[in-house]
Amino acid sequence: MNTYNLRDVKTPKILFFSNLVILSIFLMPVFYLVYRFINFSRSYRSFFNSWNVLDLVSNTSTLFIAVVISSLVIGLSISIFTVRFKIYRPKLFFTLSVLPLVIPSYIGALTYVSAFSPKGLFVQIFSPLGLAEITGIQGFFGSWIVLTLFTYPYVLLICSSALRNLDSTVEDAARSLGKNKFQIYTQVVVPRLKKPIIFSGLLVGLYVISDFGAVSLMRYSTLTKAIYSYYELKIDGDPVIFYSSILIIMALLISFVQRGTSLTQSSKVSGTPRIPERSNLGPKGKFFVYLFLITVIALGLLIPISVLSYWLIRGLIYGNSVRAVLGGVIGSLSASLVSALFSVIIATPIIIMVSQYRSRFGNLLERVMLALYGLPHIAVGVSILFITIKIFPTIYQSFTALIISYLIVFLPQAIGAGQASMEQVKDSYLDASNGLGNSKFQTFYKVTLPLIYRGLFAGGALVFLSTMKELPQTLLLRPTGLNTMAVDIWSYASEGLFTQAAFSSFILLAISAIPTYILSTRNLTK
Amino acid sequence: MNKKSIALFMTCLLIFSACGSAGEQGAQGEQGDKGEKGDAGEISQAAIEAAVEAALTEDEADVGGTLVIYSGRKESLVADVISAFAAETGVEVEVRYAKSAELAGTIALEGAISPADVFLSQDPVSLGIVAKEGLFDVLPEDILDNVPAWAVDQRGFWVGTSGRSRSLVVDTRDVSDAELPGDIYGLNNEVFRGRLGLAPTNSSFIAMVSCMIEQDGEEKVSEWLTAINGLGYTEYPKNSPQVAAAAAGELDIGMINHYYTLRVLAEAGDTPIKNVFLDGGCGAMVMPAGAGVLSSSQNKPAAMAFIEYLHSTSAQEHFTNTVFEFPLVSSVTPNELLPNIDTLNSPENLNWSALALWQEKAVELIAKAGF
Question: Which of A360, A523, B151, B177 to pair with B109, CA 20 to 30 A apart?
């Protein structure tokens, strides 16, 4: 890591103060919620008496556990199948299994809700075979399926990368001790992947408790859905603050535990790892593996894409106007561009501070930024909304407030990507530049920037994509008249207007799918 | 201090100045021409009266500027009326669409800084919340007199623009008239297990529950809500998807406002659904959708002109013939699909501002019952 410049270098004051300002802006939403939380006029117990707090927390936790487990099972299985077994075109299967990652959960949910409602698309297609009605996919079951399908790729990417680098000498030893294939995987391989498993599992978990779109469309009462429902009923109600606070506490706990499992030290063996040969599968095993892969790909990719295509074509036939979605496209693109641009500009001084000037403040900054990653968007949105109304009315309902809110949750992505590229900036380069008589700014401009601009660009691109898909903050904070594709999709889908929702969904996917795939694959597989 | 840090400082300055100017632009964009006239608090009562007077006496051609409408009514129901108003008067209109209760809460929270000029609500309870906070101007008598007395706030803070009735949408394939109850409490019956639909965050549903608390007391309503939840229900975000679900055969009985059913029937008369109007009680409540002018508005002439426009023949005809609501201006004939409003057995002499006082309790009871 960047351990250079540990000498006598003191952080320049200006860098210190500018980062201090950024830090305080970024911490404001959390501080505001804490302030409101300790100043309730009612007792905490009254929340448990008159609001269904326990139900919501238990629903959220149940979904968390269920999705984490199922995502781990699916993600790990596919990792093992595509990395360790002789199958037909493993790379193709791997890519197809990762692809559901590009589908935002609310788009996934809308395809499942519309296709598998009691008398929906699925029943209509199979009605000639005598199918009249199905139970319908919604509630816990629906949320569980949809969130699993669109989060297991995180596990797959992280675990398969770890699996590829896993030395097989221990497995060989186990084999020589007479363990069979199944035992080797359950008793040797999976335990050795403990760290990537915990890390990716908690990443999925963070995603689950923060998800708003899928659980809302599935009508499953979690904390996020309750926050928005109460907000719609009574915007400044105590429950809105109370639930947001609980949600943030849960998220901070999860990300705290997650960071305890640093990926960098996981199961590394000195020297080059011995990569085992892909092993052969018996006919039964082959059948099972193909069946599994095809089922998952069908559920995560084929069904959503076919359902969307169906609604899109139907909408085009019925003459849905393209103009209706245009406003959302323009709104999304402009918000995302501005958000990406500022994320790069703000990330740069933070990256330099953290990497080049080791100090207590730098460490604090780094930790805070990491903790902010994974803060539930809806809670941040609620907090920014109240802060702008009560403290900064000049930016209330403004584009500025929306962008600040995006940056608070997405900046860590830009910082992460930039910091990774900062590793190329060797201490010796800086010394050499210094020796040649360059000032610090010249060094930054001539040496550092050319080495890190790709990383900064990648970070900006990530922020661009995340902003484009963002839903709850946009719903709460958008200026009057600004629409985004995500908002359009959500409001059409919640009214059951699936042909219109499909239109915006398609455009969103067309713009974001390929870059999301490339960047996520790059970021999660080191 | 070295050059590098200066450069970084400059970068940061740039960021914040850029943020600042973007913010100003945003604010100007929202407030338009009004921005120059200063804060709401600085406008004297005389100026307000003069503005109101101007709006009433002068031609519509004299109103202008930007008008910000917070609309709790759906875009598909009112966008045509709003754009017709904009086209006729040349006023530049910006609309923020959301649920009525949400917008009422927003305005209450915003107070004097509210960017809104007009609040257009789908229910009287949300209007009552803004009135309770003292954020509405009193409307002139002649605007209030356009509509019947039941559709007007007693203190004149808001005026009705169209009428709607609570009703049940039923799937006629699966529901027989004989099993339907006389009032809303009759839905608490084992025969309806798993067959009911409702939209717990819908403002009209909350208005109905507020009415029930006012008329029947908290305890009875709480029991009813808990019982309905216990029977198993399908939750919808809004009324219209309930009608769509009933038409698709997925929902037997939905608690809605009457007009969505009529919209579907007007398009496809053979759809096997119908409206059932309950016989008395809050389940049969007829209530106005309405509008008021915010005291903090900086374009009151345009705001008044807009409310008057909502009472114009063309707007009222739109409400009854396209949205299938009851027109409130007597010169406009109700659409033929509508029942005669006098035959509906709504609770009489409902005091809308009293109902508004129950809104918070209604929300709490709905949440407590587990919806």
Answer: B151
